[in-house]
Write a structure and sequence with these properties.
12% of the residues lie in helices and 29% in strands. By secondary structure, it is α+β, with helices and mostly antiparallel strands. It has a 5-stranded mixed sheet with strand order 2-1-5-6-7, with no helix packed on it. The radius of gyration is 23 Å and the shape is elongated.
């Protein structure tokens, strides 16, 4: 849930300040020249792989029941895992279990790899 709140915070621009660039105060003759281009070319950008979702997400509830939902009907923050580098991995299984009075939620990729774990705060 933190990721979705952060995404909303960024989308709304909360805490962002836009400022116009200041006009140069030094006369043009004392302004440093622009740096010369690098003698080495920039490395080519790695091609981004297009990933499609397998279609459904299976939910395993703490009581042992399971249900499937179409990934297109779920929020992207549940159906997809976005890594820090921006790569997206489809989530195909969500397991919820009790941890004392807290709820632990684990999301898994199609190959069984653990994507992330969320632990709720204990109920009061």
């Amino acid at each position: 849930m933190t990721g979705s709140l952060l995404a909303l915070w960024v989308a709304l621009g909360v805490g962002c300040v836009r400022a116009e660039p200041a006009a140069p105060t030094a006369p043009a003759s004392t302004v440093a020249p622009a740096p010369s281009p690098s003698p080495l070319p920039a490395p080519p950008a790695a091609p981004r792989e297009t990933v499609t979702h397998p279609g459904t997400v299976t939910f395993l509830d703490p009581d042992g029941s399971t249900r499937e939902q179409n990934a297109a009907d779920l929020p992207p923050t549940i159906a997809w895992y976005t890594a820090a580098d921006g790569t997206r991995t489809p989530c195909v299984r969500v397991e919820a279990s009790r941890r004392g009075t807290a709820l632990e939620i684990k999301r898994f990729a199609a190959d069984g790899a653990l994507l992330d774990t969320t632990i709720s705060s204990p109920r009061r």
